[in-house]
Amino acid sequence: QKEVEQDPGPLSVPEGAIVSLNCTYSNSAFQYFMWYRQYSRKGPELLMYTYSSGNKEDGRFTAQVDKSSKYISLFIRDSQPSDSATYLCAMRGGGNKLVFGAGTILRVKS
Amino acid sequence: GAGVSQSPSNKVTEKGKDVELRCDPISGHTALYWYRQRLGQGLEFLIYFQGNSAPDKSGLPSDRFSAERTGESVSTLTIQRTQQEDSAVYLCASSLGYRGGNYGYTFGSGTRLTVV
């Protein structure tokens, strides 16, 4: 079993839809949670960063962490074609090394 | 520099040849990481450098893989006697490490390695 599980998709939605992306994990030591966005032939870029449980909002993006369920989510409101990318969840414990999910391919159709 | 720079951006090599990939991290970032991303798959950790500490090599898949870093600057990842299964995008990232509260990485655009 992988430490971090993420549905690879692809997830296809119409423009303006609310998108929900999720990851589950098995290591209870994880306490820092991140979402990265990766466009084709580019490196991943940090989108959201959350420490421990709770919600964090940044514009159209909301990150949620439920440590009791070992489940994290990223919500994208009013999705745009420019949001089409691969979204990777990542997490770590006390050290610096991040463990990544496999990534979910998102396609927003105009 | 302003971002993490990787070179070359693309590399095609013959099976059995050695290749060297270079990463130039963001100035002041003490931590540097190498990951491998195979087509359609997530990021696979290879090696991690933190300042002058001994590197964490736990992700290197075989003894054909090695990496070096000079102080807190450039790093090179070397793959000896390349095999077709080494074909992937090799991503380098850097971060503030223990100096910063946000330990998110900044990635380079990667080196796309194709072994033929």
Layout of strands and helices, then pairs:
The complex is a heterodimer of chains A (110) and B (116).
Chain A: E1 4-6, E2 11-14, E3 19-25, E4 32-38, E5 45-51, E6 54-58, E7 61-66, E8 71-76, E9 85-92, E10 99-100, E11 104-109
Parallel strand pairs in A: 2-11
Antiparallel strand pairs in A: 1-3, 3-8, 4-5, 4-9, 6-7, 7-8, 9-10, 9-11
Chain B: E1 5-7, E2 10-13, E3 19-24, E4 31-37, E5 43-50, E6 65-69, E7 75-79, E8 88-95, E9 106-107, E10 111-115
Parallel strand pairs in B: 2-10
Antiparallel strand pairs in B: 1-3, 3-7, 4-5, 4-8, 6-7, 8-9, 8-10
Overall outline of chain B: globular
Total strands of chain B: the figure is: 10
Mean pLDDT across all amino acids of chain B: 91
Strand content of chain B: over 45%
Helix content of chain A: under 10%
Measured distance between first and last alpha carbons of chain A: 37 Å
Order of helices and strands of chain A: EEEEEEEEEEE
Q: Based on the structure, what is the oligomeric state of the protein chains?
A: heterodimer
- The unreliable regions of chain A are none
Q: Which parts of chain B are unreliable, with pLDDT below 50 for 5 consecutive residues or more?
A: none
Q: How helix-rich are the residues of chain B, as a percent range?
A: under 10%
Characterize the main sheet of chain B: 6 strands, mixed
Counting helices, strands and paired strands, the structural category of chain B is mainly beta
How many H/I helices of chain B? Answer: 0
**What's the average pLDDT of chain A?**
93
The Rg value of chain A, from CA coordinates, equals: 13 Å
Largest sheet of chain A: 6 strands, mixed
Q: From N to C, what is the helix and strand string of chain B?
A: EEEEEEEEEE
Rounded to an integer, what's the Rg of chain B over CA atoms? Answer: 14 Å
Q: How many E strands of chain A?
A: 11
